[in-house]
Specification:
By secondary structure, this protein is mainly α. The chain contains six helices and two strands, in the order H-H-H-H-E-E-H-H. Helix 1 packs across helix 5 and helix 3 packs across helix 4. It is globular, with a radius of gyration of 18 Å.
Length: 142
């Protein structure tokens, strides 16, 4: 039996991702921050000085994409890139004062966004969703 368009879980996930991305993009626009750039900033707010390779691993992005986003964040004055003392081929990303200050503005937006999208969903349901999404990712990775 052939599935109908609306029955494909991958399409539902994609449509949800598009809506989530569009929504957060509008929320981050006043801060001159794209959604993917925000992911880098959030990781740096948790642990400053990550390498571009570490960010690529955390985000599941290729190194070229991370380098481009880091360059844009650097041009905006939010981060600075420095050569790693242990490996001169690697670049570490550090928050600037402006990047640190941005945290106080953006984290409340991210938390509000999270509250909005999880509204009406129990903690148990969120744990189950996390489990199922992890399982889907594992299925794709083989």
């Amino acid at each position: 039996m052939r599935l109908r368009f609306q029955d494909y879980i991958s399409i539902k996930l994609h449509q949800t991702d598009l809506k989530l991305t569009g929504y957060i993009k509008s929320q981050l626009q006043p801060y001159n921050l794209a959604p993917e750039q925000n992911l880098i900033m959030m990781l740096l707010w948790e642990k400053d000085g990550l390498t571009q390779n570490q960010l690529a691993d955390y985000l599941g992005k290729d190194k070229t994409n991370i380098a481009r986003m880091a360059s844009n964040l650097e041009k905006k004055g939010f981060i600075e890139r420095k050569f790693c003392s242990e490996d001169r081929r690697s670049l570490e990303l550090y928050l600037t004062e402006s990047g640190q200050e941005l945290k106080e503005k953006v984290i409340p937006v991210a938390e509000s966004f999270n509250d909005d999208v999880t509204n009406g969903i129990t903690e148990e349901e969120l744990q189950e969703l996390d489990r199922l999404l992890s399982k889907i990712q594992q299925n794709i990775e083989g």
